[in-house]
Known about the structure:
Helices cover 24% and strands 29% of the residues. The chain is of the alpha+beta class. It folds into three domains: 18-237 and 404-457, 2-Layer Sandwich (BirA Bifunctional Protein, domain 2); 254-385, YbaK/aminoacyl-tRNA synthetase-associated domain (YbaK protein, Alpha-Beta Complex); 476-567, Rossmann fold. The strands form eight sheets. Strands 3, 7, 8, 9, 10, 11, 12, 21 and 24 form a nine-stranded mixed β-sheet that branches. The chain has a five-stranded mixed β-sheet with strand order 16-14-15-17-20. The radius of gyration is 29 Å and the shape is globular.
Amino acid sequence: xxxxxxxxxxxxxxPSDAVLVSHKYLxxxxxIQSVGSGLYNFLPLGKMVLDNVKNVVxxxxxxxxxxxxxxxxxxxxxxxxxxxxxxKYGKELLRFKDRKDNDFVLGPTHEEMMVNLVRQTxxxxxxLPLNLYQIKTKFRDEIRPRFGLMxxxxxxxxxxxxxxxxxxDMKREFDNMEQTxxxxxxxxxxxxxxxxxxxxxxxxxxxxxxxxxxDSGEDTVVVCEECDYGANIEAAIRKPAICEAEAPEExxxxxxxxxxxxxxxxxxxxFHLDPYYIIKTVAKKALxxxxxxxxxxxxxxxxxxxxxxKACNSVNANELIDIDDEELQEAGLIPGFMGILNLPExxxxxxxxxxxxxxxxxxxxNEKDYHLVNVNMIEYEGRYDDLIAVQEGDRCAKxxxxxxxxxxxxxxxxxxxxxxxxxxxxxxxxxxxxxSKPFVMGTYGIGVSxxxxxxxxQHHDDKGCKWTMQSxxxxxxxxxxxxxxxxxxxxxxxxxxxxxxDGIDVLIDDRKERFGFKMKDFELIGIPYGLIVGKKIxxxxxxxxxxxxxxxxxxxxNDVIEILRVRAxx
Length: 570
Ligand code: ATP
Ligand code: MG
């Protein structure tokens, strides 16, 4: 392709709302154009990259035995009512009516649609397993669309759904997808980590995320310095903490006057005790379908922090929100002195697993100015769950190594669904014994348009993008130093034609612009190799610029194509 003919509207300035480099560069280099909050047009270069990414995804999925389909984007609300998600999904779901007053939604994900397709076409175990996917526009009316392609409202997703006769076969496919996704992200040249993810109320290790490691990532990922353990902070576990500080002396449970002492550090000072030996009680309001709400107390060691997603899952709520002192008092609770014993009616309590059997703890007495001492958790019979936000420096549950935080961009998510959708949608098949059973399902997503942003977040410098070999719109950009120089022009054209013949994707910058200006665009756009045809052409010499290092090497014109062919892996 010719730069002079292509629509590549490069800009000097980034939009004022752009914070992330990928957002700035993708707009400045003419890959995308903003049309409204969270809505983007893909320009020719952007479309080329998007197609490259799509092709890698498709090739690997097809090799892994998946079949591509294409489902309607506009989805009848009736399916969402059947699954129970029409109400539950919240404001991200764009609902609308047609002229006959029928309800519809714009698909934010397609579980219902895919189950509906399969329940009408698959009747027997003999037709299983089946893994169907599409690469399709999704719409989610995100509260804060931002960061360009990273969090759009309209975006491109690969969404796949697998159908199985039993749990065991679904798990086999889950592993198959984990390997397939790993191959996809590796081919795209990404440094990523597969991590344990939050599986919502389902729990267990039924869900994994693919995180592209980048400082700008929105997700906190816990990784082990010694082994391959990695998990989203929302799902991360650790070896139970131990405390070096002296434990309190054993004694009999009693009320202790602690006037105005309400905070963990004040209590720690007052009792000369490490916060490890003090029970912290965090109150939240849990929200449920249909407007139901209740107050929940989460109890954990004073030295630990509450992980809200874990806490939310532990009470099966849609959301947890903060609660003010006034509301706590109305419910009969005393802020600063809350504890897990002697509670007023109707308050639910969840205690962190690490407090199981803990001896001699200090805990709020649920009475103003009093705490309890010598609370023996072995006597406590309430509910326990994992509530802890793993901290840097905690120990790995797998190997004991040190855990640390890194930031990640979620580009893929695989999930063992079970019968969450097949049951309510009554999607069944006949098994070997002629018995009707709901399909056991898995679901697998990739943020295809988000991947463009993720690639740039991981591969850029202060001058612009550095596309990876599989994603780049062109492998080589020929830069003609002075287009009015006949010798330069002729040689550049010759190299260009030969590269096309050899199957090397090439762009030629044949614009009547200064060399410096063209180099700036080359650096901004980020094609892996530049081939400069300049003055030295009279000696048969051209230059290769490596976009990664920006280093230049002089090469004999007769060798240059072979060298580039090898480097570009063509
Ligand atoms: P996130 O936690 O980032 O909001 P999610 O968990 O809601 O994502 P999934 O429902 O698992 O997302 O969707 C599958 C994939 O689609 C995600 O892994 C992500 O890469 C991509 N994705 C989700 N929301 C967006 C968005 N608003 N813009 C671009 N890509 C998105
Ligand atoms: Mg997800």
